[in-house]
Amino acid sequence: MLRERLASGDGLGKMVADIMHSGGLVSDELVNRMVEDRIQQPDAVRGFILDGYPRTVAQATLLDGVLRAKQIGAVVVHLKVDYNIVIARLSGRRQCPSCGAVQHFVRNEPTLELCGKCGSKMAVRDDDRPEVIGQRLKAYDEQTQPVLTYLRGAGYRILEVQGQLRKPEEIASEIEAEIAGEFGVATVRTA
Prior knowledge:
mainly alpha, Rossmann fold, two-stranded parallel sheet, two-stranded antiparallel sheet, 4 strands, globular
């Protein structure tokens, strides 16, 4: 959602870009406004996933109020990954400036310097530089970790999922099964 706003190029998008590229977090007021607008869109009627939100207790408080007012059930998924692995994964990520494709660069794999879809030279996103990642992890420790404590206290179920050294498909299947069981649905994945 933030990247969509960033790509829009409007005034708010430019503010978001400056903050994100410096490793900071976008203000609660701006993010809350975007989230409230987004979850009211028609494609969110049957459910939605908020990835990376809420990041602060103030955001969690607002979200709690919105979910309760709309009587929307929720499960909080806490994906646990060692910070060294996070840094390695993000700093190895490359994005194509032409078509937007994302690939992971592993040292000594020169073929990944070019986009597999359109052949353009892949680039490091500003927010995937190691120093920016370090700032984001520090911000997580200071601002986001207390969100889990708040949400537990507010009665939300916290699903702790080990995310390192496992295939994404395994992690997704575990989360899908837990959420499906929580809400009594056969599946939560859409193609």
